Amino acid sequence: MDHDRAVAAHHAPDSPLQQFVSLSVTLTGFDDAELWGTGLVNTYYALFPSIVGDAVFGDFMTRWNYTHRRGAGDASQLHTLVRQQILDDPDFGPLARNLISLWYTGQWNQLPAAWRNVHGAWANDATFIVSSAAYSEGLVWKAIHAHPIAAKQPGYGSWALPPDGEEPA
Amino acid sequence: MSKPRSSRATKAPPAAAAPAVPPAAPRPISSVHSLRRHLQGALELEHATIPPYLCALYSIPDGANVTAGALIRSVVMEEMLHMVLAANLLNAVGGTPRVHHRKFIPAYPTYLPFSDQSFLVELLPFSRRALDTFLRMEKPAKPHAKPEPGDSPTIGQFYEAILEAFHRLEHHAKKRGETIFTGPRRLQIAGDTWYYGGGGSPVAVTDLASATHAIHEIMDQGEGLDHGIFDGDDQFGQVDELAHYFRFNEIHLGRRYQKTDGPTRPPTGAELPVDWTASYPMAPNPKAADYVGQPAIHRLMVDFNRQYTALLRALDRAFNGEPSALGDAVPIMYDLKYRAQALMAIPSGRGDGTTVGPGFEFAP
Amino acid sequence: MSTPTSDIRHFDAIVVGGGPIGAHVARELSNAHKTVLLLEAGRAGGLTYEGYRSYVTNFHTQVAKDTNSPYPANASAPSPREIDLTQIDPGTPDLNGYQVEFGPQTFASTYLRQLGGTTLHWLGTTPRFLPNDFQLATKYGVGMDWPVTYDDVEPDYCLAEWSIGVSADRKEQEGIGIPFQKGYEFPMLPIPASYSDQVIDKATKGLTVALANRRYPVTVSRLPQARNSIPNPRARPPKPDGRGIDPHGAPYRPVGAVGNPDVGLRCEGNSACIPICPVQAKYSALKTIDKLDRRYVTLEAQTVVTKLTIDDNGRISGVEYLSYDTEGGATTAGRATANIYVLAGHAIENAKLLLASGAANGSDQVGRNLMDHPFSSSWALAPRSMGIFRGPLQSSGIESLRDGEFRREFAAFRIDLSNVGWDIVPDANPPYGDVSRALAKNMFGPALRRHLGDIVPRQVRVGFDLEQLPESQNRVTISREFKDAIGCYRPVIRYGLSDYTWQSMVESMKVSRAIYQRMGIPDADQHYVTSDATQPDERNFRARDGKDYLLNFVGAGHHMGTHRMGLWRTNSVVDRDQRSWDHENLYVVGCGSFPTTGTANPTLTALALALRSTRHMLSQLH
Ligand SMILES: Cc1cc2nc3c(=O)[nH]c(=O)nc-3n(C[C@H](O)[C@H](O)[C@H](O)COP(=O)(O)OP(=O)(O)OC[C@H]3O[C@@H](n4cnc5c(N)ncnc54)[C@H](O)[C@@H]3O)c2cc1C
Ligand code: SF4
């Protein structure tokens, strides 16, 4: 396991990895403990530049740091800035959506044609599911209060119980 | 199960780790009352082994150490079965199994309940250190060791004493035209209705014969049948299974036993590949309180503890007249696993490369 | 009695196909100490626990998660896949994939050619047919009667249910009109109804609907399912011939995963029954194959049977096959002989093989009367969470509309309640589709998380397994034009629905609407058809009310009718024992033998018929 390095990096405040995690927290709506709990922080942190290259990834993180600093301390201000500076941005929006998609589904989606027209086509930029673990840890299943299909089975009879927050039928 | 034990419960445990030691048992087991106390102790003892085994099991990432994981899992399944059997024994003699209370869960690191306190049991990830402890926990008694209700060096002898007491007390009762088996039949959990997934089926305890059977089941799976390496469990066409000590020894030595092997010599069977580095580096003996400064982690720790406590609540109901509550325990068990695995992937923040882990603390 | 040996190439019986039907035939014959050669076209994967698990992880990483996605593709024994289907243009065949389709509607059902057969990815719902399903012509003047009655088959239903392990409640099944012999109990207690089932059940209490001017109750009941549940402690097994209960027999013991018997002893709610049950709590034929007595059964996988040869007396004289090492690679031809021959290769493949051999077709019915349960859905958004994506894909159904006078006019239906929301709703693809749609709206952060947590668990889908009548133009044929990589015929399919079924689809919407109204779902949140959907089977239909409906459906995977059984050799391929009218030592078994479809998922009935036939086979082998 490559934990030592990861953990050391984790604790350097404002380390690139830490910035990646804080961006992920902002984009996904899951806190950093939940993200680390998937065991995939390092995987996704390494995956991103391996698909779009260090320079594009670096620009993306720079944009996030800038946005993050401007919005620091004011959640609604940050939210607005993230939308304007990142999601609505033709260069960074597709990257942000792909990062969310990774976290929510374990799937990298091929970047849209418009993005590729500008930034070029990258060899590894195809639609694929990163790994069995990435599939199973997809946050969408947590968001919908379920378990991933064909993984993390909840056990006999669990489906008869009321879902979170509902009364028995 | 065979764990060294002694009644020297007065020896001070390490601070902050008060084990859930029941009041020192009088010796010998002279009354049904005392027998019940011993059986409640047996429940606590069986339970105390489960969190350490689960930590080791859950710390193994998917796809790694497959055989070692399967061996640990099989031991856990049997410890759970032993809890059910201990509850059946206790219910049979009119006692009340209590598993949902603060004292029931030891605070790790802990001496095992009833132990001679020669070693501490910790919550550790899969590692050589964890395996060393497991081996000490399950060490078999010497052949022909005498039953010891009070200060026996192994739990095998502790169960021998319980068995002896069952026979003696029932014999005396019979003479008076009575029986010690006064508990209601409906409290017994039996068959594969609610218990499944390995380890065998629990038997109902209603008389001396079934009590003897249940105690033997616990002893054989733990320490081996008549001091061989196998547990003598060939019901349902299961292949002979090794007693717990020997299963752990296989992992420890990286080699399987074969039929012709005996208890005093190392295994000579096929190699069992073990990758000691393939486990989450969970910091030992996690506690929710350690993470109050990291609220996101703390919340997950507390959530885990709540679920664990919910599991004990379900077991308490199951042991007290509602066997179907064992069914409720199953989804909780699964949920605990996923939560524990997530905790073990989170850096602890200690800067030493360790990760968080499940605390197994009482949180009603 | 024969001596068990595997060297000679002559056997008491040759069974073609290692799916549930072939496995059961092989088991029954070998248990009677007959030598059996079991030939399987696909690979023998899944007989080790690790091998099976590899399909599960493979499934996790497949982007398109269709029914065959966990299983490695095999060019030497190809299978149809949903992802190959396209809308058929009139007049131009769809050549994509394995199946050649001429339409007018797409035949959108799949099967799987690998050891274990289609039960690797089946759902495992196992209702019995209703007594009237066997007598459609007599009772309602449509379709055709079966050459056997419900009572003839009842003992074998019991045997089949104990063989594959069915979880259900006798009383509940009696309530929907299914009779049982005295003392019979299902081996396991019913799988618990999901929370969403319970919500729908509660909402529809006392609900009735009018079909062809009569009212029928809409009653939710738990489905009989071949997945492990709590063994029924009171149940005792049927006697070996299925007639009567063995009072001294032991209660049922659930069968766990092949190679890991402690796993899968209960359904654990993986919600993945189709396409793969990760813990093998769901029955698959692998469980039967794993236990075959190999002293009598020779199993040869990667062996595609290509032809039956016929001697001058009209008896089958042998099978010819091609075996291969690598998928799509070179093949070796081989031949084997036996006293009797049993085709159990699936309704489509059986018909293909008969046609390729010029066998059993004196009636000209081989390959004709292809039927399915066309499956149409409605879907809605409930006002509150239904707790979906938990549990088996389905746990309850509405069985009260499976029979009635309306069958004179239009098809009956069995209603499935989905536990996975809008799973097969066109383009919905939950929950992934929901994520994509939210991302397209630039949602992110807590708002995204809340949004998904709100909309997905409220998804409701109600599905209708519709009856379909036998029609001779719906058929599978072969043509020298269309062959696969090893030179075997690809199935060529012509398929369409008649008004009997289309009208029923319109009626089914009434039922949906009544259910949704009871659930308090506003009209705007109810969905029946989508005009912009690119579904293969879309069609504009003018119903009896004079209105036009844009209808579509998908396949249920229930291929039936292609070698139907009957009372007369002039209009059927096999007799009541599933023996070919034309060749006395040939049996053709499976759902292809069904004269009509009823509304029940077919496999249990096919198993019961197969068990029944094995007694006839054994009498021949004596
Ligand atoms: C998505 C889906 C869901 C389903 N759900 C249900 C359900 O819930 N309930 C239900 O009752 N039914 C269900 N079914 C139908 C069910 O799977 C089939 O009825 C059943 O598997 C048929 O059994 P069989 O043995 O006749 O054919 P198969 O299971 O298809 O097995 C046939 C075997 O024969 C082999 N074979 C084929 N051709 C040759 C050849 N030429 N030579 C050698 N071997 C050959 C194949 O490789 C295969 O292994 C479902 C089907 C699908 C597709
Ligand atoms: S719900 Fe899961 S465990 Fe149950 S049968 Fe389906 S896939 Fe298997």
Notes on the structure:
The complex is a heterotrimer of chains A (169), B (364) and C (622). Chain A has 169 residues and is mainly α. Chain A has one domain. Helices cover 60% and strands 2% of the residues of chain A. The N terminus of chain A is likely disordered. Chain B has a domain of 248 residues: Ferritin (Up-down Bundle). In chain B, helix 2 runs antiparallel to helix 5. Chain B is globular, with a radius of gyration of 20 Å. The N terminus of chain B is likely disordered. Helix content of chain C is 22%, strand content 17%. Chain C has twelve helices and 20 strands. In chain C, the strands form five sheets. In chain C, strands 1, 2, 7, 8, 9, 10 and 20 form a seven-stranded mixed β-sheet that branches. Chain C is globular and about 70 Å long. Chains in contact: A-B, A-C, B-C. At the A-C interface, helix 2, helix 5, helix 6, strand 2 and helix 8 of A face helix 2, helix 6, helix 9 and helix 10 of C. The structure holds flavin-adenine dinucleotide (FAD) and iron/sulfur cluster. The site of iron/sulfur cluster has 14 residues of chain C, from loops.
Question: How far from one another are the termini of chain C?
Answer: 8 Å
Quaternary structure classification: heterotrimer
Number of helices of chain C: 12
Q: Helix content range of the residues of chain C, please?
A: 10-25%
CATH architectural arrangement of one domain in chain B: Up-down Bundle
| Mean model confidence by pLDDT of chain B | 86
Overall number of structural domains of chain C: 1
Order of helices and strands of chain B: HHHHHHHH
Secondary structure: helix percent of chain B: 40-55%
Distance, first to last CA of chain B: 29 Å
| Morphology call of chain C | globular
In short:
Chain A is an all-alpha fold.
Q: Features of this protein?
A:
heterotrimer; A: 169 residues; mainly alpha; two-stranded antiparallel sheet; 9 helices; 60% helix; 2% strand; disordered N terminus; C: 622 residues; alpha/beta; FAD/NAD(P)-binding domain; seven-stranded mixed beta sheet; six-stranded antiparallel beta sheet; 12 helices; 20 strands; 22% helix; 17% strand; globular; binds flavin-adenine dinucleotide; binds iron/sulfur cluster
